[in-house]
Amino acid sequence: MAKEKTPEQKLVSEATRTTPTPTSESRNKGKGKRSGQPRIGGTAVPGAKSTQPKPVSTSSNPQQQQQDYSNRIMRRQMEHKGLGPQSETERMQEAQEKRKKKIERKKQRVEEKRQEIRRSLPSSGFKLGKKNLYFIIGTAVAIILLIVIFLIIRHPF
Q1: CA distances (Å), origin 91, targets 4, 87, 130
Q2: Between 91 and 150, the higher pLDDT residue
Q3: In sequence order, what are the residues at sequence separation of 6 or more whose Cβ sits closer than 8 angstroms to the Cβ of residue 35?
Q4: CA distance 78 to 86
Q5: Contact at 8 Å (CB) between 117 and 110?
């Protein structure tokens, strides 16, 4: 039959059992530079709101305390969702910045298209070779002569 320990015997056996507790030196060996920094507040900047002590409610009324607690929770939820009076100006500024960025991207795209079109067109205007130039001048002279001849034939002096 197995022996069962009473609660008093358990306490005595736990007290007699010794576990080696690490000294502060052995704990800080692997930390290097961080050993001198305080752990309170984590990475928060000293003096930040999150590091300040929580203000104690002055009212002893439990309903008022509950209401304050609910208000805090609701305010945090609203801020997290991006709602609330504090973030209204921030939202307006963000919207304006988005519009400006969108307009700038559109302008940039239009400018890129213009540059593409300029590249695809002939670079330096309209050039004619000697043969083409003589042909165009000759054709123009011939058309003008034909018009003058028809005018003379139709309306004799």
Answers
A1: 67, 6, 67
A2: 150
A3: 28
A4: 10
A5: no
